[in-house]
Amino acid sequence: MSGKTVALPGGRWAISVRKDSTLQRTAWWIPLMSVCCALVFSGIFIAMNGISPFLVYGKMLDGAFGSSYGIGETLVKAIPLLLCGLGVSIAYRISVWNIGAEGQLVVGAIAATAVTIYWPDLPAIAAIPLMVVFGFVAGAIWGLFTALPRTHFQVNELITSLMLNYVALLLLNYLVFEPWKDPKGFNFPGSPMFTLAQQLPSIGGSRLHIGFLFALAAVLLYWVFTKHMSWGYELRLLSANPVAARYAGMSINKQIILVMLISGGLSGLAGMAEVSGVTHRLMYGISPGYGYTAIIVAWLAKLNPFGLILSSVLCGAVIVGGYSVQMIGLPSSMALMIQGSILFFLIGGEVLSKYRFTWSNLSDGGR
Amino acid sequence: MDFTLTLLVAAISSGTPLLFATLGGVLSERAGVINLGIEGMMLIGAVMAYILSVTTGSLTLSIAAGMLAAGALGLLHAFLSVSLKANQIVAGLGITLFATGLSSYLGKPYGGQQVPNSIPVLHLNGLDAIPALGKVFGHLNALVWVSFVAVIMIHFYLFKTPWGLHLRSVGDSPSTSDAAGIRVFRYQYAHVIAGSMLCGLAGASLILVFTPSWNDGLTSGRGWIAVALIIFARWNPVRALLCAYLFGAFESLGFRMQLLENAIPPYFLKMMPYLTTIIVLMFVGWRNRNRPNGQPESLGVPYVREQRV
């Protein structure tokens, strides 16, 4: 243990900081603090361009939560973030660095659209479940493309999953610009609109669709499986002590494949929900980087299933807020800037969770 | 010039940004720090070089700005991964995300303008006399020559100087190096920052040689390909040069096939560098299945002084 005591101005109070490596509690205030620090940090860059950061953040907050429409949009964005965030969280549990949620989401959207292209006349009762299955399976296969090189050729999954993102995006662009382009679309790079039977029903008059039920169900399943089933125990053991796990007869390769199938499948499901519930067609730029934001969603929640709900809503709000600053002439990619800085304040701040902070009143003579 | 020579020149020039980025990554990883911020550092390098180029017209200033901005991100990465012992993978991802947003924020007001002067091609007439390769060497831009010098210097530094030996030992076993009196943290900081500046140079060379105007996500994954090239090159600068040119050749081959053949849609040709990366890495993994792949032993493991192992 090492530490020091710093007297605060005035001399009556002091704060003592002690390193305590045995500290096990999760510091809930670190995610909160990192979001605040990230806003200040990004604010400096905004201010350097001569724009008031308060104006920008005010606009973002207003855009994301200022109206029922804004809240609806934020929740709509939170659905794919939650599904992808869950997907990457499961992989991160055994230190499989899946950063391919973006590509897995895109192929999920493509596969769901394929159902509408090749079987256009299915009734809703058949079309929707088929689209769900196609979306999930396509994402899972994309995940498998990352898992197999890792398990059989020791290829780092970071690189494969990321390369596959670019491949998926190019595949999407090919489809929406060439074979699947809507002939009645006035040259718009998108597939024909889905029929009502191929759309996920929305709730009330809002754009919020029942895809959020998938997301909540997935959260619940994740919680049950990782907390209350032996599989979760296996994952924990694998990440804590791979050598012991191997002696216990567990196969890391089997788990990597399983985890990547689920991870990819959930992202694929997010892609299905996005085309069927929100855009109602496959189109150019279907994802504003959901797959990348999902990484932040997962870390902000510290892989906790219920924390994921909160962090996905927060990151959804940042994306929606990012759109609303376009009205004052700023690029929406400001959202990425804020998200990136959240991530490094978060991991930088984690060092603080190893310290114990105590207040002491010097005038009492105590420490 | 015939087809092969044109392709060779194209491979070398489009491989050069990859080479700079790979060399930057090699420096950082030799010190034991994974840098996944390469893509972001290239973007920041590109946008700063672009802004300085359209506002001042000076090549020197724009390259310096690109390198300094990326170096600043490198300082951040070193602070997070070396001082705060944060997860290096997440730190790098954070830097890439942040820099992607920041670069498009910075570049937006200048969008649509052309870079006034790009890196000049050095026509070295004396070299034309060399059979076959003379023609290639006569048509390379100035930065390619800089990259040759960089490869030679880094190779010499890594394998022929005491500092290089120290650096390699830091990457393999920081605790042993520390016990031997090598200043581990200083080495890590210096090489992460220097490597990041090379990534900034990679971004700057991209915009000053290839694309005359800024657009978002200009690097289109080249930083990530560089991360793969580091593995492919087995953390060795000379191999990095060969690997970068191989990928440069794939890139320009795709571009050329687009002009020659109408049968394959350009989307599929553009997939080539990404798919090649995966296939090449699978080949490397299969070939190295029973032997070490050259990776520094302590890569990615933060060194905590109190916990000597």
Descriptive report:
The complex is a heterodimer of chains A (367) and B (309). By secondary structure, chain A is mainly alpha-helical. Chain A has one domain: ABC transporter involved in vitamin B12 uptake, BtuC (Orthogonal Bundle), CATH 1.10.3470. Chain A is built from 13 helices and three strands. A three-stranded antiparallel β-sheet of chain A has the order 1-2-3, with no helix packed on it. In chain A, helix 2 (53-65) crosses helix 12 (305-324), helix 7 packs antiparallel against helix 10 and helix 11 (290-300) crosses helix 12 (305-324). The longest helix of chain A has 30 residues, at 124-153. The two termini of chain A are 16 Å apart. The mean pLDDT of chain A is 87. Chain B contains twelve helices and two strands, in the order ααααβαβααααααα. Chain B has a single domain, classed as Orthogonal Bundle (ABC transporter involved in vitamin B12 uptake, BtuC), CATH 1.10.3470. A two-stranded antiparallel sheet of chain B has the order 1-2. Chain B is 70% helix and 1% strand. The mean pLDDT of chain B is 89. Chain B has 309 residues and is mostly helical. Chain B has helices at 3-30, 38-56, 59-83, 88-107, 133-137, 142-160, 162-172, 174-179, 184-210, 222-232, 237-260, 266-287; strands at 121-122, 140-141. In chain B, helix 1 packs across helix 6 (142-160). The longest helix of chain B is centred in the N-terminal third of the chain and has 28 residues, at 3-30. The chains are: A mainly alpha (367), B mainly alpha (309). Chains A and B meet through helix 6, helix 11 and helix 13 of A and helix 3, helix 4, helix 10 and helix 12 of B.
